[in-house]
Write a structure and sequence with these properties.
The structure holds 2 protein chains of 2 kinds.
Chain A lengths: L3 E9 L2 E12 L4 E5 L4 H4 L1 H10 L9 E7 L11 H11 L5 H5 L1 E3 L2 E2 L5 E2 L4 H10 L4 E5 L3 H4 L6 E5 L2 H9 L30 H13 L3 E4 L6 H6 L1 H4 L5 H13 L15 E2 L7 H5 L10 H4 L4 E4 L7 H6 L1 H6 L1 E6 L2 E6 L3 E6 L15 H9 L3 H5 L3 E4 L5 H7 L6 H19 L12 H7 L8 H8 L5 H18 L6 H8 L8 H4 L1
Helix pairs in contact in A: 2-3, 8-19, 19-22, 20-22, 22-23
Chain B lengths: L16 H13 L5 H10 L1 H10 L8 H14 L3 H11 L2 E4 L27 E4 L4 H6 L1 E5 L6 H16 L3 E4 L5 H12 L4 E4 L13 H10 L1 E4 L9 H14 L2 E4 L7 H11 L3 E4 L10 H8 L3 E2 L3 H8 L13 H7 L2 H9 L8 H8 L3 H13 L3 E4 L2 E4 L15
Parallel strand pairs in B: 3-4, 3-7, 4-5, 5-6, 7-8, 8-9
Antiparallel strand pairs in B: 1-2, 2-6, 10-11
Helix pairs in contact in B: 1-3, 1-5, 2-3, 7-8, 7-13, 8-9, 10-11, 15-16, 15-17, 16-17
Classes of the chains: A alpha/beta, B alpha/beta.
């Protein structure tokens, strides 16, 4: 008997790599050796595969079997190699034609009865197969919809090992109950900006954040609506482009978080980890090869940290790398996993630890100062907008009657503003104003003195720092894009000032 | 010059290296500010005094205890100690100046033993920074106050110091936390005049540690001055002796916040001893941090509330009158009509949201959002828990100076 080969995909982060599975069945004491850095789940595949083969009307060769996964240096994990291992053994024992396996990549986990079960990370795996030039991929039926997002490769769904054997031998497919395609979960109703009553300032702030990709920090007493505002940010962000949607879906696929019925994530995601979360759960982690964390799951969407000062300092500081580079590279024993993580960061905080309203607050001034100072300077530096979210009063609710707009109307303006910015930024590496360094902005598109009079006065009297000034200019460009102006004028700069004057976050300005 | 400086007969020889090194060593052997040592140096020259202290020879007027201490320190110090200290000073870009040097501010640093609390003038100064000391302090005012300053204190200090520096006045202070730091910072931010930190330790010592960056900035853009040897650490006595130097170098001293037993009061008292102008900024009568200022005012110090009033005292005749008229009328005139209409709609108390203000002013919310930051920068409105409200200035109750239009 000869050596048989099949192909599977190993994932490191969201990058897949084609893995060759070789099976050699030879004379010797019956047994099975698996080489090529398998992890625990993969090692257990030996027993799963043997039972699955025997329970699928095939014969497990009673000889010595060696299975090698190559490249051997690449650590491999998970249960998605089961199909490729079973097929390699069957081909080596002559039960399957080897030529049918040359062109295919096999992905799937086996149950003891020969059922093929769904696995995580199908999208990036199929992408890797397509990139490696394969033209056919066998996937679990439950993952078929996700796999078919990848163009240029034929997807062959199977729901049992019998089905795979039939497919490869050209026999009649077995009569199996059709796999129930889970129905699309009902679309979650979009949270509408209109619901945030009495917060016209806050609503404007999230609109600016969405239009310019500006990170924002909401400061206000409890119950003023900070969380509501942040939750509505994804709803006014433009829908994901096809490329962005595939990136987001790949991360969610690796994390195993895709809803089975609607595999493509098309809306900007929203992640709001609790403040007790560990650094690993937010930036990604795990013992062998890091799994994606909330920051990566928020790729192209919004990462919301409520009660931001309550987060551990290490967690907050770990966010500095993705804020800078838009990706997270995490080294673990098994290798470096790189996940995309370009998100809009929204932080929310009470002005002080007691969280009572101004008059009832008993915190000493230094306690107030220290509370917000827990957010490190370098992190807050990357946050363009410091938004004061005041308590809603009855007068404000009445006065606002009729002023509110729906998320749909705001989203339209956001989209138009992003188009305008993209047009201006064509030929640069930036897409939105939030990415442009303030210095560059001032150098390439200088503003007339007349527009920055009040801003300069604020600089003079210390209410605005030099760095804050750069942020104001960025925000002013976004405001100009939102209002359809060619460039910021004095009014736009003045409006942008409100987000950087030192009175919202005094500890930061000092 | 209108400064009330008193010219006293001083021993001024041509400065030479041996004399300078002797003075540097004296700074280590006896605490600066000692009258007997000062008088002995004037009579016999620094080198001779140094030699006699080293040898343990009695000097007229110098107590045995002081002489004994000096001899002990001299033996620990070694013969080449002063040269090593000068090199150490060179390393941080500092220099030594002594009476007779071109930049020695002779008029400011000459006084006699007019009262028991007033220590003798310095025998030498160490200076870090580019400017000439005499020119830098020619038009200068000291601003001092509590280390544990309140928000009010740092705000007033910042405004005062910025205005003074904007008008070309050097701001002197002690480099400490609180009022001192606020005074230095605002002067540095202005960039139109130098600021001078007078320290109670060596000029190469960053004290207090938390102000090390501030001190580095001052060394870059202003001057750091001390009469103590390099590496000397600050002590309680040195602070008191230092205070007379702050008082002496400027034309006057402004105390912004001082508790009842504050070191700033000693600076003010030395200024009075030296015939400098003594000024104090009042605070709330309920604030312990302003008690000392109120004591000073009761004792005859000038009450000042802005830079114009300070300059009116210490500047050339008429200089203070050039004060920009401050207060509501002026600020309001500057503002566009639309912004003023928004100001009218902001409540005095309670606070109002943006929609409420827009409705009251009869303007679109956008205009309110564009106007409020302008009003905030002008100090007319402030944020509160429930939105926006007027500041005292915005409410037309400014602490406007009386007697001005």
């Amino acid at each position: 008997m000869a050596v048989a080969r099949t192909y599977a995909v190993a994932l490191v982060g969201v990058r897949g790599q084609l893995v060759e599975v070789e099976a050699d069945v030879m004379q010797g004491i019956p047994g099975l050796v698996l080489t090529g850095l398998p992890d625990a789940a993969l090692n257990e595949a030996r027993d799963r595969v043997r039972s699955a083969v025997n329970n699928s009307g095939q014969v497990w060769p009673g000889r010595k079997i060696t299975l090698a996964l190559s490249p051997a240096w690449l650590p491999k994990r998970g249960s998605s190699f089961d199909l490729a291992l079973a097929a390699a053994v069957l081909a080596a024992s002559g039960a399957l034609p080897t030529d049918a396996l040359e062109r295919r990549v096999l992905i799937g986990e086996l149950g003891l009865d020969g059922q093929v079960r769904a696995v995580k990370g199908v999208l990036p795996a199929v992408l890797a197969a397509a990139e490696a030039g394969r033209d056919r991929v066998v996937v679990p039926s439950l993952n078929a919809a996700e796999a078919s997002l990848v163009p240029g490769i034929a997807v062959e769904p199977v729901s049992s090992l019998r089905g795979l054997v039939a497919l490869l031998t050209g026999a009649e497919p077995p009569d199996e109950p059709l796999v129930e395609r889970p129905a699309c979960p009902p679309e979650e109703p979009l949270k509408d900006l209109l619901d945030v009553a009495g917060q016209v300032g806050g609503r404007t702030a999230v609109e600016i954040s969405a239009a310019g990709g500006h990170h924002l920090m909401l400061v206000g007493p409890p119950g003023s609506g900070k969380t509501m505002l942040a939750e509505r940010l994804p709803g006014i962000l433009p829908a994901l482009t096809r490329a962005a949607a595939l990136e987001v879906t790949a991360v969610h696929s690796v994390a195993g978080l895709l809803p089975a019925g609607s595999p493509l994530v098309t809306r900007p995601p929203f992640q709001d980890p609790h403040h007790t979360s560990t650094a690993a759960s937010i930036v990604g982690g795990g013992s062998h090869i890091a799994a994606p964390g909330a920051a990566s799951l928020a790729h192209h969407g919004v990462l919301f940290l409520d009660e931001a000062p309550e987060f551990k300092g290490t967690v907050l500081d770990a966010l500095r790398q993705p804020l800078e580079s838009g990706r997270l590279a995490i080294r673990r024993v098994g290798g470096t996993a790189v996940y995309p993580a370009r998100f809009t960061l929204a932080l929310a905080a009470n002005p002080c630890p007691c969280g009572k309203e101004e008059k009832a607050c008993t915190c000493r001034p230094d306690a107030r100062r220290r509370y917000l100072a827990r957010l490190s300077g370098p992190l807050l530096d990357r946050i363009d907008m410091h938004v004061a979210v005041p308590q809603v009063t009855r007068a404000e609710l009445l006065a606002e009657n009729g002023v509110g707009e729906t998320s749909a109307a705001v989203a339209e303006r956001v989209l138009a503003a992003r188009d305008r910015a993209a047009h201006r930024l064509a030929g640069t590496s930036w897409q939105v104003n939030g990415q442009i360094p303030g210095v560059e902005l001032l150098r390439r598109w200088p503003l007339p003195r007349s527009a920055t009079r009040t801003a300069e006065r604020a600089l003079d009297n210390g209410m605005l720092t030099a760095r804050g000034y750069g942020r104001v200019v960025r925000l002013a460009w976004t405001l100009a894009d939102l209002t359809g102006l060619d460039r910021p004028v004095e009014d736009t700069v003045n409006q942008a000032l409100t987000y950087r004057l030192s009175d919202v976050l005094p500890a930061v300005a000092a | 010059m209108s400064g009330p400086d008193v010219q006293v007969d001083v021993h001024v020889g041509v400065p030479d290296e041996a004399d300078t090194l002797a003075r540097l060593e004296l700074a280590r052997l006896v605490e600066p500010g000692s009258w007997p040592v000062h008088q002995a140096v004037e009579r016999h020259g620094a080198a001779a005094v140094r030699d006699r202290l080293r040898a343990g020879d009695p000097l007229p007027g110098i107590s045995p205890a002081l002489a004994e201490g000096a001899r002990g320190r001299a033996s620990a110090y070694g013969a080449s100690g002063a040269i090593a200290e000068r090199d150490r000073l060179d390393a941080v870009g500092g220099r030594l100046i002594v009476p007779g040097d071109a930049e020695w501010p002779t008029a400011r640093l000459s006084w006699g033993p007019v009262c028991p609390q007033l220590a003798a003038p310095p025998l030498l100064l160490q200076v870090r920074g580019a400017g000439r000391l005499d020119e830098t302090v020619e038009r200068s005012v000291a601003i001092v106050g509590a280390r544990a300053a309140t928000g009010y204190g740092t705000y007033v200090t910042g405004t005062l110091s910025l205005q003074l520096a904007d008008r070309g006045w050097t701001v002197l202070s002690g480099g400490a936390y609180g009022i001192d730091a606020a005074a230095h910072r605002a002067a540095l931010d202005s960039g139109r005049a130098a600021t001078v930190a007078v320290l109670a330790c060596g000029v190469d010592v960053a004290y207090p540690r938390g102000n090390d960056r501030l001190l580095a900035r001052i060394a870059e853009q202003g001057l750091i001055v001390s009469e103590h040897a390099p590496g000397a650490s600050p002590t309680r006595v040195r602070f008191l002796v230092r205070n007379r130097l702050i008082a002496a170098l400027g034309r006057g001293v402004v105390v912004v916040e001082a508790a009842a037993r504050s070191g700033s009061l000693s600076t003010a008292n030395r200024a009075a001893d030296l015939d400098r102008h003594v000024m104090a900024v009042p605070g709330p009568v309920t604030s312990a941090q302003s008690t000392g200022c109120h004591v000073l005012i009761r004792g005859g110090a000038h009450l000042v509330s802005d830079a114009g009033e300070v300059i009116a005292l210490v500047g050339a005749p008429g200089e203070g009158a050039m004060t920009e008229p401050r207060g509501e009328a002026r600020v309001h005139d500057d503002l566009p009509i639309a912004v003023r209409s928004v100001l009218e709609a902001v409540p005095v108390r309670g606070g109002a949201g943006e929609a409420t203000i827009a409705r009251a002013a009869g303007v679109p919310v956008l205009l309110v959002q564009q106007s409020l930051p302008v009003l905030l920068v002008h100090g007319l409105v402030q944020r509160c828990d429930t939105g926006w409200r007027l500041t005292p200035l915005g409410a037309g109750r400014p602490a406007a100076s009386p007697g001005r239009q």
